[in-house]
Amino acid sequence: MKQDKTIEIRWHGRGGQGAVTSAELTALAAIHEGKFAQAFPSFGPERRGAPVLAFNRISSGNPIRVRSGVTKPDIVVVLDPGLVTLINVTDGLKPGGALIVNSTKSVEELQQEFTGDWKLGVVDATSIARELLKVNIVNTTMLGALIKVTGAIKLESLEEPLKERFGARARSNFEACMKAYNSIVISEITTSGPKKEKSFKTEKALSWKDLKVGCIVTEAGNTKQFRTGDWKSQHPVWDDAKCIKCGICSLFCPEGCVSQDKDGKFRGNMYYCKGCGICSHECWPQAISMVEGVE
Protein backbone atom coordinates (compact mmCIF):
# COMPACT_ATOMS: atom_id res chain seq x y z
CA MET A 1 0.00 0.00 0.00
CA LYS A 2 1.11 3.53 -0.74
CA GLN A 3 1.47 5.98 2.10
CA ASP A 4 -1.89 7.67 2.50
CA LYS A 5 -1.87 11.46 2.32
CA THR A 6 -5.50 12.49 2.59
CA ILE A 7 -6.49 16.16 2.39
CA GLU A 8 -9.88 17.11 3.81
CA ILE A 9 -11.64 20.28 2.63
CA ARG A 10 -14.78 21.93 3.98
CA TRP A 11 -16.66 24.47 1.87
CA HIS A 12 -18.93 27.06 3.48
CA GLY A 13 -21.36 28.82 1.19
CA ARG A 14 -24.98 29.76 0.65
CA GLY A 15 -27.57 28.06 -1.50
CA GLY A 16 -27.07 29.25 -5.06
CA GLN A 17 -23.39 30.19 -4.74
CA GLY A 18 -22.08 26.89 -6.07
CA ALA A 19 -20.32 25.37 -3.06
CA VAL A 20 -21.45 21.89 -4.11
CA THR A 21 -20.20 22.47 -7.66
CA SER A 22 -16.84 23.66 -6.26
CA ALA A 23 -16.44 20.40 -4.37
CA GLU A 24 -17.41 18.35 -7.44
CA LEU A 25 -14.95 20.16 -9.71
CA THR A 26 -12.18 19.77 -7.13
CA ALA A 27 -12.77 16.03 -6.94
CA LEU A 28 -12.87 15.67 -10.74
CA ALA A 29 -9.59 17.59 -11.09
CA ALA A 30 -7.96 15.38 -8.45
CA ILE A 31 -9.18 12.22 -10.20
CA HIS A 32 -7.78 13.60 -13.45
CA GLU A 33 -4.38 13.68 -11.70
CA GLY A 34 -4.69 10.00 -10.81
CA LYS A 35 -5.69 10.60 -7.18
CA PHE A 36 -8.60 9.22 -5.19
CA ALA A 37 -11.25 11.82 -4.36
CA GLN A 38 -14.77 12.28 -3.09
CA ALA A 39 -17.16 15.23 -2.98
CA PHE A 40 -20.52 15.49 -1.25
CA PRO A 41 -22.80 18.17 0.23
CA SER A 42 -24.53 18.47 3.58
CA PHE A 43 -27.86 20.26 3.53
CA GLY A 44 -31.54 19.67 4.09
CA PRO A 45 -34.48 21.64 2.64
CA GLU A 46 -32.50 24.91 2.42
CA ARG A 47 -33.43 27.41 -0.28
CA ARG A 48 -31.35 29.99 -2.07
CA GLY A 49 -29.30 32.00 0.42
CA ALA A 50 -29.31 29.47 3.25
CA PRO A 51 -25.92 28.39 4.65
CA VAL A 52 -24.77 25.06 3.17
CA LEU A 53 -21.72 22.83 3.51
CA ALA A 54 -19.83 20.74 0.99
CA PHE A 55 -16.84 18.46 1.56
CA ASN A 56 -13.85 17.00 -0.26
CA ARG A 57 -11.39 14.28 0.53
CA ILE A 58 -8.37 13.83 -1.72
CA SER A 59 -5.93 10.96 -1.31
CA SER A 60 -2.71 10.46 -3.24
CA GLY A 61 -2.25 7.00 -1.74
CA ASN A 62 -5.18 4.72 -1.00
CA PRO A 63 -8.91 4.57 -1.80
CA ILE A 64 -11.05 6.65 0.56
CA ARG A 65 -13.28 4.54 2.80
CA VAL A 66 -14.61 7.28 5.10
CA ARG A 67 -18.03 8.68 4.14
CA SER A 68 -18.81 10.97 7.07
CA GLY A 69 -18.77 14.77 6.96
CA VAL A 70 -15.46 16.57 7.42
CA THR A 71 -15.19 17.79 11.01
CA LYS A 72 -11.44 18.36 11.20
CA PRO A 73 -10.53 19.88 7.84
CA ASP A 74 -7.08 20.68 6.54
CA ILE A 75 -8.59 23.45 4.44
CA VAL A 76 -11.66 25.65 4.91
CA VAL A 77 -13.03 27.71 2.01
CA VAL A 78 -15.61 30.43 2.69
CA LEU A 79 -17.57 31.57 -0.36
CA ASP A 80 -19.69 34.18 1.40
CA PRO A 81 -18.06 36.78 3.69
CA GLY A 82 -21.25 37.16 5.75
CA LEU A 83 -20.85 33.62 7.08
CA VAL A 84 -17.76 34.61 9.06
CA THR A 85 -19.94 36.37 11.66
CA LEU A 86 -22.74 33.79 11.61
CA ILE A 87 -20.88 30.48 11.74
CA ASN A 88 -17.68 29.26 13.35
CA VAL A 89 -16.06 28.50 10.00
CA THR A 90 -12.75 27.53 11.62
CA ASP A 91 -14.32 24.89 13.85
CA GLY A 92 -12.00 21.87 13.82
CA LEU A 93 -9.51 23.43 11.39
CA LYS A 94 -6.20 21.64 11.89
CA PRO A 95 -3.07 23.55 12.98
CA GLY A 96 -0.97 24.22 9.92
CA GLY A 97 -4.06 24.19 7.73
CA ALA A 98 -5.49 26.92 5.53
CA LEU A 99 -8.45 29.29 5.74
CA ILE A 100 -9.50 30.87 2.43
CA VAL A 101 -12.11 33.64 2.49
CA ASN A 102 -13.94 35.61 -0.18
CA SER A 103 -13.92 39.12 1.27
CA THR A 104 -13.29 42.76 0.47
CA LYS A 105 -11.44 43.05 3.78
CA SER A 106 -7.67 42.95 3.95
CA VAL A 107 -5.67 40.10 5.42
CA GLU A 108 -4.80 42.33 8.37
CA GLU A 109 -8.46 43.05 9.09
CA LEU A 110 -9.48 39.39 8.94
CA GLN A 111 -6.55 38.35 11.12
CA GLN A 112 -8.17 40.32 13.93
CA GLU A 113 -11.22 38.04 13.73
CA PHE A 114 -9.46 34.68 14.09
CA THR A 115 -6.99 32.90 16.33
CA GLY A 116 -4.92 29.95 15.11
CA ASP A 117 -1.81 28.86 13.29
CA TRP A 118 -3.07 28.53 9.73
CA LYS A 119 -2.45 30.11 6.38
CA LEU A 120 -5.00 32.80 5.63
CA GLY A 121 -5.87 33.60 2.03
CA VAL A 122 -8.15 36.54 1.18
CA VAL A 123 -9.52 37.40 -2.27
CA ASP A 124 -12.39 39.56 -3.51
CA ALA A 125 -13.93 36.74 -5.52
CA THR A 126 -17.29 38.49 -5.79
CA SER A 127 -15.82 41.39 -7.79
CA ILE A 128 -13.91 38.98 -10.03
CA ALA A 129 -17.04 36.93 -10.71
CA ARG A 130 -19.07 40.00 -11.59
CA GLU A 131 -16.36 41.31 -13.87
CA LEU A 132 -15.66 38.11 -15.79
CA LEU A 133 -18.79 35.99 -15.34
CA LYS A 134 -21.39 38.76 -14.99
CA VAL A 135 -22.99 36.93 -12.05
CA ASN A 136 -22.54 36.88 -8.29
CA ILE A 137 -21.51 33.19 -8.22
CA VAL A 138 -17.99 32.70 -6.92
CA ASN A 139 -17.48 28.93 -6.94
CA THR A 140 -15.04 28.64 -9.86
CA THR A 141 -13.31 31.85 -8.82
CA MET A 142 -12.60 30.43 -5.37
CA LEU A 143 -11.08 27.31 -6.93
CA GLY A 144 -8.19 29.49 -8.10
CA ALA A 145 -7.74 30.76 -4.56
CA LEU A 146 -7.79 27.21 -3.20
CA ILE A 147 -5.11 26.08 -5.64
CA LYS A 148 -2.81 29.05 -4.97
CA VAL A 149 -2.96 28.71 -1.18
CA THR A 150 -2.81 24.92 -0.86
CA GLY A 151 -1.69 23.28 -4.10
CA ALA A 152 -4.27 20.56 -3.39
CA ILE A 153 -4.81 20.18 -7.12
CA LYS A 154 -3.13 21.62 -10.22
CA LEU A 155 -4.57 24.59 -12.08
CA GLU A 156 -4.43 22.84 -15.46
CA SER A 157 -6.33 19.86 -14.05
CA LEU A 158 -9.44 22.04 -13.84
CA GLU A 159 -9.66 22.75 -17.56
CA GLU A 160 -11.34 19.49 -18.57
CA PRO A 161 -13.88 19.42 -15.71
CA LEU A 162 -14.77 23.05 -16.45
CA LYS A 163 -15.37 22.21 -20.12
CA GLU A 164 -17.60 19.30 -19.19
CA ARG A 165 -19.56 21.37 -16.69
CA PHE A 166 -19.86 24.75 -18.41
CA GLY A 167 -19.32 24.08 -22.12
CA ALA A 168 -18.94 27.38 -23.98
CA ARG A 169 -18.69 29.25 -20.66
CA ALA A 170 -15.70 27.23 -19.50
CA ARG A 171 -13.17 29.80 -20.76
CA SER A 172 -14.61 32.70 -18.74
CA ASN A 173 -14.83 30.48 -15.65
CA PHE A 174 -11.20 29.47 -16.05
CA GLU A 175 -10.23 33.13 -16.49
CA ALA A 176 -12.00 33.95 -13.21
CA CYS A 177 -10.16 31.08 -11.56
CA MET A 178 -6.84 32.38 -12.91
CA LYS A 179 -7.51 35.93 -11.76
CA ALA A 180 -8.23 34.76 -8.21
CA TYR A 181 -5.08 32.61 -8.34
CA ASN A 182 -2.98 35.65 -9.25
CA SER A 183 -4.64 38.20 -6.96
CA ILE A 184 -5.20 36.35 -3.68
CA VAL A 185 -3.26 37.71 -0.70
CA ILE A 186 -1.78 35.07 1.61
CA SER A 187 -0.52 35.42 5.15
CA GLU A 188 0.21 33.24 8.15
CA ILE A 189 -1.97 33.44 11.24
CA THR A 190 0.33 32.70 14.17
CA THR A 191 -1.52 34.32 17.03
CA SER A 192 -0.09 33.37 20.41
CA GLY A 193 -1.68 33.66 23.82
CA PRO A 194 -5.19 32.70 24.95
CA LYS A 195 -7.75 31.97 22.29
CA LYS A 196 -10.22 34.78 21.63
CA GLU A 197 -13.83 33.87 22.31
CA LYS A 198 -16.15 34.75 19.46
CA SER A 199 -19.92 34.80 19.59
CA PHE A 200 -22.12 33.99 16.61
CA LYS A 201 -25.65 35.25 16.07
CA THR A 202 -27.06 31.89 15.05
CA GLU A 203 -30.75 31.24 14.56
CA LYS A 204 -31.76 27.64 13.98
CA ALA A 205 -35.08 26.20 12.96
CA LEU A 206 -36.37 23.05 14.65
CA SER A 207 -34.59 19.89 13.63
CA TRP A 208 -36.69 17.24 11.88
CA LYS A 209 -35.87 15.04 14.87
CA ASP A 210 -37.83 17.44 17.10
CA LEU A 211 -40.98 17.31 14.96
CA LYS A 212 -43.79 14.77 15.27
CA VAL A 213 -44.41 12.52 12.29
CA GLY A 214 -46.65 14.21 9.72
CA CYS A 215 -46.80 17.56 11.50
CA ILE A 216 -46.71 20.98 9.85
CA VAL A 217 -45.17 23.75 11.94
CA THR A 218 -47.58 26.71 11.78
CA GLU A 219 -47.10 28.35 15.16
CA ALA A 220 -44.26 30.07 16.98
CA GLY A 221 -41.16 28.14 16.06
CA ASN A 222 -41.69 28.00 12.31
CA THR A 223 -39.35 29.62 9.80
CA LYS A 224 -41.05 33.04 9.93
CA GLN A 225 -39.58 33.40 13.41
CA PHE A 226 -36.03 33.32 12.04
CA ARG A 227 -34.06 36.15 10.46
CA THR A 228 -33.54 34.73 6.99
CA GLY A 229 -32.41 38.24 5.99
CA ASP A 230 -29.02 37.35 7.44
CA TRP A 231 -28.60 34.90 4.56
CA LYS A 232 -28.12 37.62 1.96
CA SER A 233 -24.92 39.25 0.75
CA GLN A 234 -26.81 41.98 -1.16
CA HIS A 235 -30.02 43.90 -0.51
CA PRO A 236 -32.43 45.81 -2.78
CA VAL A 237 -32.73 49.60 -2.73
CA TRP A 238 -35.71 51.40 -4.32
CA ASP A 239 -35.33 54.64 -6.29
CA ASP A 240 -38.61 56.46 -5.64
CA ALA A 241 -38.01 58.82 -8.57
CA LYS A 242 -38.11 55.88 -10.99
CA CYS A 243 -40.68 53.72 -9.19
CA ILE A 244 -44.13 53.81 -10.87
CA LYS A 245 -45.74 51.75 -8.08
CA CYS A 246 -46.68 48.93 -10.45
CA GLY A 247 -46.10 46.24 -7.80
CA ILE A 248 -44.15 43.90 -10.08
CA CYS A 249 -41.46 43.58 -7.41
CA SER A 250 -44.03 42.44 -4.88
CA LEU A 251 -45.60 40.01 -7.36
CA PHE A 252 -42.31 38.28 -8.20
CA CYS A 253 -40.69 38.25 -4.73
CA PRO A 254 -40.34 34.53 -3.89
CA GLU A 255 -40.34 35.28 -0.16
CA GLY A 256 -43.39 37.55 -0.21
CA CYS A 257 -41.46 40.20 1.72
CA VAL A 258 -42.07 43.18 -0.60
CA SER A 259 -45.11 45.35 0.18
CA GLN A 260 -46.39 48.93 0.04
CA ASP A 261 -45.96 51.28 2.95
CA LYS A 262 -48.55 53.85 4.08
CA ASP A 263 -47.32 56.27 1.40
CA GLY A 264 -47.80 53.70 -1.36
CA LYS A 265 -44.09 53.12 -1.84
CA PHE A 266 -42.80 49.57 -2.23
CA ARG A 267 -40.20 48.32 0.22
CA GLY A 268 -38.68 44.98 1.16
CA ASN A 269 -38.74 43.56 4.67
CA MET A 270 -35.01 43.12 5.25
CA TYR A 271 -35.71 40.76 8.14
CA TYR A 272 -36.71 38.12 5.59
CA CYS A 273 -35.21 39.33 2.27
CA LYS A 274 -32.57 36.84 1.06
CA GLY A 275 -31.06 39.16 -1.53
CA CYS A 276 -31.92 36.98 -4.53
CA GLY A 277 -32.24 40.04 -6.81
CA ILE A 278 -35.39 38.84 -8.58
CA CYS A 279 -37.22 42.09 -7.74
CA SER A 280 -34.41 44.09 -9.36
CA HIS A 281 -34.34 41.83 -12.42
CA GLU A 282 -38.11 42.06 -12.99
CA CYS A 283 -38.39 45.83 -12.38
CA TRP A 284 -38.64 47.16 -15.95
CA PRO A 285 -38.40 50.87 -14.89
CA GLN A 286 -35.07 49.87 -13.26
CA ALA A 287 -36.11 51.45 -9.98
CA ILE A 288 -34.46 48.72 -7.88
CA SER A 289 -30.72 48.19 -7.57
CA MET A 290 -28.86 45.56 -5.57
CA VAL A 291 -26.36 46.92 -3.04
CA GLU A 292 -23.62 45.04 -1.19
CA GLY A 293 -24.15 44.19 2.45
CA VAL A 294 -26.93 43.29 4.88
CA GLU A 295 -29.16 46.22 5.74
Structure notes:
- With 295 residues, this protein is α/β, with parallel strands linked by helices.
- It has two domains: 6-190, Pyruvate-ferredoxin Oxidoreductase, domain 3 (3-Layer(aba) Sandwich), CATH 3.40.920; 208-292, Alpha-Beta Plaits (2-Layer Sandwich).
- Helices cover 24% and strands 21% of the residues.
- It contains eight helices and eleven strands.
- The strands form three sheets. A seven-stranded mixed β-sheet has the order 2-3-1-4-5-6-7. A two-stranded antiparallel sheet has the order 8-11. A two-stranded antiparallel ribbon has the order 9-10.
- Helix 3 runs antiparallel to helix 6 (170-183) and helix 4 crosses helix 6.
- It is elongated, with a radius of gyration of 21 Å.
- The chain starts with 5 loop residues before the first strand and ends with a strand.
